[in-house]
Design goal:
By secondary structure, the protein is mainly alpha-helical. The protein folds into two domains: 127 residues, Serine Threonine Protein Phosphatase 5, Tetratricopeptide repeat; 162 residues, no CATH class. The chain is 63% helix and 0% strand. Helix 3 packs antiparallel against helix 4 and helix 8 packs antiparallel against helix 9. The longest helix has 19 residues.
């Protein structure tokens, strides 16, 4: 044993002796090897991945349970794959996020938030440089902190989200604003969330987008499928990301009390090349016509248990049956 190693051993041993079993436990935990990321390309993983995208792109909420079974089996076989962990996290938050689809929402649905946080935490450990996973984990921490009235967890999520925004603003400004869109309209955090959407447009356009019209037409030539800016546009992963962004942003501005500007924001979704095939284009048209009436509806607490389908639609996007599929459904 070389001298530095010997000194370290003596120091650790002394610490263990001085603190008893607790010291031994601390040393054992501190010196445990980190989990190493391994990309899983097994047939089971590929089958689970295909089932995930088929369900999400098809808007098949009813298939979440079956897809979870496949994905969980793939994860248990290879728990070192960040992608599989993240898919599990997304499936759980999709089930919770679009629970307005259910006739009766069980109280236990909130357990999906904890499971989503657990799997996004794994994804972040395995792929710490991926700002998407960090943003999703932060959102789960904020959500679970709210459920359990855990201020420490809420604050951890808040600061993790800020770091995620700094790492990839084109992606995580939307994420931060979206999870905050459920907050009361007259709070500072909600106003900040609306500002996040405007700032998101600015970083995508590399310019100051007009705050009165939100006219994004001058920036359409910037569309790209690669690099950080790809998060600003429709993609294979989110076929109607552009449309869904403006639907949500319009909802948030309606909730803030400015239906006139919101109508201009909603209209930007029609600039998307795939707007004609978007499953929620009719929702957008109704939003434009109902903007004034929706101010009060978007500010009111949700009443999912008693709402009819059209009533469920007239909630801010985060609380609707298309909270995830508004961007991801083909």
């Amino acid at each position: 044993m070389n001298r530095p190693a010997a000194l370290l051993f003596v120091t650790l041993a002394a610490a263990a002796l001085s603190s008893g079993a607790g010291g031994c436990a601390s040393i054992a935990i501190a010196t445990a090897p980190a989990k190493k990321a391994v990309h899983d390309e097994s047939p089971a993983a590929r089958e689970a991945e295909a089932a995930f995208w088929t369900a999400l792109h098809g808007g098949h909420y009813e298939d979440i349970g079956a897809v979870l079974e496949k994905m969980q089996a793939a994860y248990l076989a290879h728990p070192e794959d960040a992608r599989t962990a993240a898919r599990l996290g997304f499936l759980h938050i999709w089930r919770l996020g679009e629970s307005a689809r259910m006739d009766a929402v069980p109280a236990t649905i909130t357990d999906d938030m904890g499971l989503a946080r657990r799997y996004f935490d794994e994804a972040v450990k395995l792929a710490p440089d991926d700002p998407r996973f960090r943003g999703f984990l932060a959102g789960m921490e904020l959500g679970e902190g709210s459920i359990h009235h855990d201020e420490k967890l809420t604050r951890a999520g808040f600061f993790r989200m800020n770091d995620a925004v700094s790492a990839w603003p084109e992606f995580n400004l939307f994420t931060r604003g979206y999870v905050m869109s459920r907050l009361p309209w007259d709070t500072e955090r909600f106003r900040d969330a609306v500002n996040d959407q405007w700032e998101n447009l600015d970083v995508c356009a590399d310019a100051k987008v007009d705050r009165a019209t939100a006219d994004f037409s001058p920036y359409l030539p910037l569309e790209t499928k690669s690099g950080w800016k790809r998060a600003c546009w429709d993609s294979w992963v989110a076929p109607h990301n552009f449309e869904g962004f403006f639907l949500n942003m319009g909802d948030m501005i309606v909730k803030s009390g400015d239906p006139k500007t919101a109508r201009s924001v909603y209209a930007q979704a029609k600039l998307a090349k795939g707007f004609a095939t978007w499953s929620y284009k009719d929702v957008l048209e109704r939003r434009i016509g109902q903007a004034d009436e929706n101010v009060a509806l978007f500010r009111a607490p949700p009443k999912r248990a008693t709402q009819e389908p059209m009533e469920k639609e007239r909630r801010i996007m985060f609380e609707t049956p298309f909270a995830c599929t508004g961007c991801h459904q083909e």
